[in-house]
Amino acid sequence: MFRGLLTSYHDIYGDLEPAAALALLDRLDLPTDTPHLAELRHVLAAGHTNHYRSPGAWDDAVRLCS
């Protein structure tokens, strides 16, 4: 499920509903050190629907979550 959310965010045709995707992500029992988990949470919490509509958002999340 996590991989699907992450891929949907980065896919050119991906179009997540940020609040619903974040709620689903929060229900998953994932280790805190799951790669890209913090970054995905960050972009979804900021309301971004996909990487291509907000290209700098992921880079910002990487900088803030590192």
Would you mind describing this structure in some detail?
By secondary structure, the chain is mainly alpha-helical. The protein has one domain (2-65). Helix content is 59%, strand content 0%. The mean pLDDT is 95.
Integer tally of domains: 1
> What is the alpha-carbon Rg in Å?
11 Å
Number of strands: 0
Mean of residue pLDDT? Answer: 95
Q: Name the helix and strand elements from N-terminus to C-terminus, one letter apiece.
A: HHHH
Features:
mainly alpha; 4 helices
Sequence-ordered SSE layout with sheet pairings:
Blueprint: H1 2-10, H2 18-27, H3 37-45, H4 55-65
Helix pairs in contact: 2-3, 3-4
Give a quick rundown of the structure.
The protein has 66 residues and is mainly α. It has helices spanning 2-10, 18-27, 37-45, 55-65.
